[in-house]
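Private note to self, pasted from the team thread so I don't lose it. Backbone tokens:
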């Protein structure tokens, strides 16, 4: 989106001092269903007693040992769709033309409607780089660029948008439909930390690099606490391959090395790689020295894998509004191989990626020379007494690993606490037009907003590439994909978007730039905001509807590309997604959970690790950050996937939801409700979405009901009146759960109005 970068000083944006003041009284909502990590280590009682998970995904499923393994084809939910039935992509409107009319945000920021932070897309990408990467090919299929398009604002001296097709799996695409190859394992197995080969892992581990794992240390190599560069062992030519682009293209030896080749792609990704490499080393250091280095390494790896799975299913997915049924145990009949539809359509949530990171910390961390160097790169620096705010445009964060140690891991990770962009059809111009490109020299001040085109002379459009990649992989049309996932086909453009018309207003049209103008915007509570302001808006109304612009480029609903239709859908209540995207995520994350023999719910050594060494994997991402950076736990929102309440508009209600006890198959929750509206509640109805198959079994002091994942408690006859400022206590229930995940609810409303968390 080129939702324009906002100035570093935002009205209403809390300063660091405010964050630290409130940190002293932040209280974690509720409690976890299980115990958290114990700091001390217990005496050793023997070596590793559990099966070690392979690096490449092989032998996870014992009956089908290659399922989900590196180098195997993506699975398919629907039949492949090629123009010739074998390999030729279907025709469709020019994807840059579609992008200019549908994905173009005209520099208007719209943020998550469910307060999801930048950890939403960051964790999503970290997982993407854990379980999916198609084998790239060399067959050129460039996207035509039309400089005369009346909606085009960028110049492109190359004349095309570069695109190459992914390679066909062996034996496909000639007499049968073309398939594509996944070059990573199809499991949540911390691939991004450890990689998929012994050679890469040995290079990353402390100790000699001599083709022998027997003399490696238990720890990962982290010089100065950061990922090693390809020069770390003296010969970058012998270092593991890493993708380079943008600023690294001219100096590939400076690339940071991690388990996945894409670790340098952006600063948030590099930081998350670094965080979990530190976490591995922290766990390894907790283990007794009487264990061998290999045993300590494998125990730490087992815990890190389980931590990433636990964070995914108990924090990430609930925050995104993906509510899975309860876990019933490992199912070897489930095919975990990543689906082509998930990898190429459903998991491409590029709309969420924010155009800027804003780090807040102490000014004393940096010298004047460092601050000048930041400014020279295009960073926005504002010093306010002892505090400093550093705004990092996304384009500067691409392939720039030097910037992370310069800013510091802790300060950078705090920047992800701000809201991500709404998961809509709009994509920021940092991605939609100038992805990974190096700006023209001597013009750092134009790296954001309407002036962005002046910084670049080429176009790389991720939204257009998303469309083309779907055609390259033989993706079904939008309606065909809906039907493959059990959803009815849409019969009109307005049925896709939920709007009332697909007709342009007078004096507008599909080729008129005024069709993209925003007429009004609103915040998370529906209150009007100022159009064009950088912060605060979560929804907007344009001169023309998305449905009208879809009709202008596609003509018929049956022609709509799957990716375009998916991102244009109206969201399911309580979710960041429309029906199709949520269905794709639900199916894939169920398979990744239920078909993984090493999923934490299936144990595989985790109970023995906790019993012998006092190390339990049940942890929040906030706790991982606090344990591995100099940011204190009290300064981190307990659920980092949610924007802190202090950074949002004031609410009319506050809810405290706490799990007070658990026992096999059941838990008990206590709820209190505070009226912050200024007027009495004469009747109240509290709603939220349950995750992981949780359900009411018995309740008190309210009227309880459940419709699917939506849980409701209405007042009883004697407690419906709640004066302004008063708090109602004593409401609670017993609920059922799967003994495995038990995620806490994230979206509470009372009488249809958003509530803060107490």
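Design output:
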């Amino acid at each position: 989106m080129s939702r324009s970068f906002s100035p570093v000083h935002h009205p209403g944006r809390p300063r660091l001092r405010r964050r630290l003041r409130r940190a002293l009284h932040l209280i974690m909502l509720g409690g976890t269903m299980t115990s958290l990590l114990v700091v001390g280590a217990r005496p050793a009682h023997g070596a590793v007693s559990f099966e070690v998970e392979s690096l490449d995904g092989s032998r996870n499923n014992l009956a089908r040992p290659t399922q989900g393994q590196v180098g195997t084809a993506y699975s398919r939910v629907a039949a492949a769709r090629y123009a010739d039935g074998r390999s030729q992509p279907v025709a469709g409107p020019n994807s840059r033309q579609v992008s200019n009319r549908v994905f173009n945000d005209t520099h208007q920021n719209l943020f998550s409607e469910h307060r999801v932070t930048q950890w939403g897309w960051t964790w999503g990408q970290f997982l993407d780089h854990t379980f999916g990467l198609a084998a790239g090919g060399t067959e050129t299929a460039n996207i035509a660029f039309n400089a005369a398009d009346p909606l085009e604002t960028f110049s492109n001296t190359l004349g095309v948008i570069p695109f190459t097709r992914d390679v066909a799996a062996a034996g496909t695409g000639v007499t049968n439909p073309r398939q594509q190859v996944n070059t990573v394992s199809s499991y949540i197995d911390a691939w991004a930390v450890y990689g998929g080969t012994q050679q890469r892992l040995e290079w990353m581990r402390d100790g000699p690099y001599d083709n022998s794992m027997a003399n490696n240390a238990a720890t990962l190599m982290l010089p100065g606490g950061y990922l090693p560069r390809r020069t770390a062992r003296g010969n970058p030519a012998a270092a593991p391959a890493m993708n380079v682009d943008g600023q690294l293209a001219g100096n590939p030896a400076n690339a940071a090395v991690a388990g996945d080749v894409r670790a340098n792609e952006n600063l948030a990704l590099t930081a998350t790689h670094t965080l979990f490499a530190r976490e591995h080393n922290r766990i390894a250091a907790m283990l007794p020295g009487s264990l061998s280095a290999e045993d300590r390494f494998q125990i730490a790896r087992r815990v890190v894998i389980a931590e990433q799975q636990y964070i995914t299913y108990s924090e990430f997915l609930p925050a995104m509004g993906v509510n899975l049924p309860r876990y019933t145990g490992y199912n070897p009949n489930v095919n975990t191989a990543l689906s082509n539809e998930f990898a190429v359509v459903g998991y491409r949530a590029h709309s969420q990626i924010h155009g800027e990171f804003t780090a807040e910390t102490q000014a004393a961390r940096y010298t004047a020379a460092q601050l000048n160097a930041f400014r020279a790169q295009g960073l926005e620096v504002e010093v306010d007494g002892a505090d400093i705010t550093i705004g990092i445009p996304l384009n500067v964060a691409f392939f720039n690993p030097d910037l992370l140690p310069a800013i510091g891991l802790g300060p950078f990770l705090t920047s992800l606490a701000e809201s991500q962009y709404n998961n809509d059809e709009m994509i920021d111009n940092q991605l939609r037009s100038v992805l990974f490109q190096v700006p023209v020299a001597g013009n750092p001040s134009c790296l954001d907003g309407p002036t962005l085109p002046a910084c670049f002379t080429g176009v790389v459009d991720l939204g257009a590439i998303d469309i083309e990649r779907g055609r390259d992989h033989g993706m079904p049309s939008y309606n065909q994909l809906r039907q493959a996932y059990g959803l009815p086909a849409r019969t009109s453009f307005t049925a896709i978007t939920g709007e009332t018309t697909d007709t342009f207003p007078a004096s507008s049209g599909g080729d008129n730039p005024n069709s993209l103008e925003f007429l009004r915007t609103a915040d998370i509570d529906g209150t009007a905001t100022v159009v064009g302001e950088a912060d605060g808006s979560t929804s907007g109304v344009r001169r023309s509807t998305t449905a009208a612009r879809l009709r202008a480029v596609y003509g018929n609903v049956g022609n709509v590309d799957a990716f375009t239709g998916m991102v244009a859908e109206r969201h399911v209540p309580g979710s960041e997604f429309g029906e199709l995207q949520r269905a794709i995520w639900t199916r894939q994350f169920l398979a990744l959970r239920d078909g993984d023999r090493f999923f934490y719910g299936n144990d595989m050594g985790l109970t023995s690790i906790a019993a012998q060494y006092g190390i339990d994997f049940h942890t929040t991402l906030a706790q991982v950050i606090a344990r591995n950076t100099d940011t204190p736990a009290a300064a981190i929102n307990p659920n980092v996937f949610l924007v802190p309440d202090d950074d949002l508009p004031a609410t009319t209600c506050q809810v405290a939801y706490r799990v007070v006890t658990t026992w096999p198959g059941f838990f008990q929750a206590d709820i209190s409700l505070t009226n912050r509206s200024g007027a009495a509640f004469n009747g109240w109805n509290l709603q939220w979405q349950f995750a992981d198959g949780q359900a009411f079994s018995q309740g008190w002091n309210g009227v309880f009901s459940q419709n699917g994942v939506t849980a409701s408690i209405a007042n009883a006859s004697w407690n419906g009146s709640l004066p302004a400022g008063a708090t109602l206590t004593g409401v609670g229930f017993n609920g059922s759960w799967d003994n495995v995940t038990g995620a806490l609810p994230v979206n509470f409303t009372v009488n249809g109005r958003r509530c803060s968390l107490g």
